[in-house]
Specification:
By secondary structure, the protein is mainly α. The chain has two domains: 12-46, no CATH class; 55-90. 63% of the residues lie in helices and 0% in strands. The chain is built from three helices and no strands. Helix 1 packs antiparallel against helix 2 (35-46). The longest helix is centred in the middle third of the chain and has 39 residues, at 48-86. The protein is elongated. Keywords: Disulfide bond, Electron transport, Membrane, Mitochondrion, Mitochondrion inner membrane, Respiratory chain, Transport. It is found in: Mitochondrion inner membrane; Mitochondrion intermembrane space.
Length: 101
Amino acid sequence: MASGFGYDGSRGRCFQFWQEFNKCYANADFPQQCISQRDDYLECLHHTKEFARATRIKTEELKQAEKRLQAKKASSAAADSNLPRLNIINDNVQKPVEAKA
């Protein structure tokens, strides 16, 4: 938590980042020198970069799954339309029965 105390009374998960940011800010001549420490602390608190990355990964997985589905449909349609023309599979024609002599 931002107070420095966790739920069970111990140190919070972001307390280390807060200490680094606070130390940098106290020793810095300009606040802009501590931007990376501030970003680390805010990321620890809010997980914005982590959530954005997870969203991008999920979106890409969905795009790839959609592409695979479209390719499968296209190949299935092409295969189904060509089979009867090539006489590879013809369900309507029965095999002739050999007569015993």
